[in-house]
Amino acid sequence: LSPVRVLFSRSLDANTTSELTRIVERLGGDVVSDTSPATITTASALASSSSSSSPVVAAAAPAASICTHFVSATKITRTINLLVAISRGCHVCTPDWLHACARARGFVDAEGYGVRDRGKEREVGFKLQEAVGRARERGVLEGQRVFVTPSTTPDAHSLAAVAAAAGAEVLPSTSAQAAPTVIISCEADRAVCEARALQGVPIFSPEFLLTAAMRQQLDWDRNRLP
């Protein structure tokens, strides 16, 4: 059997998290957190460059990069860990899944316990569980080479983790041997990617990546930087 590694959303209160942690550990699973060892195995993480065109990408990755199940409250909050979990095709489920596991005295299939937040899903224009299903079939950024400039918000490290989870090759700089096909940037970093922009490489705001990861669908017409 594959190991079960559970990450708890910070949307859960401390008492609920403690109770669910005991269930996971009693059943022989692992609870991971953002202090758990994890690395981003991308070009960005492996590159060592001090040039201003390189994103600030540390070796540590969000805990969602190693979990199998992301347990959250029923209200969707767009966090880096949620986006990484969706992009990796992880189970995104409610605490009811672990309560069912406790009753069964073993880990049960998480299907049927998926988080559904109809209000948020209507607002964003997606269905979370369908997005997870699409991610399992093919990463939304598979085949893309992505460069994230250093001054973005969220930070370049977090955005690089999302891009990598979504199947992209994350590049260490705009001057990498293989040219980027997508650049995630901001007004403050215009000079960093100006040369590639002149070559026709599309430049997008971070919202392009965040929305793509959430929906597991690309919208090439929105969130472009002029």
Written as H for each helix and E for each strand, in order along the chain, the element string is EHEHEHEHHHEHEEHEH
Query: Which strand order do you get reading across the main beta sheet?
Result: 2-1-3-4
Question: Structural class of the secondary elements?
Answer: alpha/beta
Helix amount: 25-40%
Helical stretch tally: 9
How many strand segments? 8
Q: Any overview of this molecule?
A:
This protein is α/β, with parallel strands linked by helices. It has nine helices and eight strands. The protein is elongated and about 60 Å long.
Summarize the SSE layout with pairings.
Blueprint (H helix, E strand, L loop, with lengths): L4 E4 L5 H13 L3 E3 L10 H4 L22 E3 L8 H8 L3 E3 L2 H9 L13 H7 L3 H10 L7 E4 L7 H10 L3 E2 L11 E3 L9 H5 L4 E2 L1 H10 L11
What can be said about this structure in brief?
With 226 residues, the chain is an alpha/beta fold. The protein is built from nine helices and eight strands.
Descriptive labels:
226 residues, alpha/beta, 4-stranded parallel beta sheet, 9 helices, 8 strands, 34% helix, 11% strand, elongated
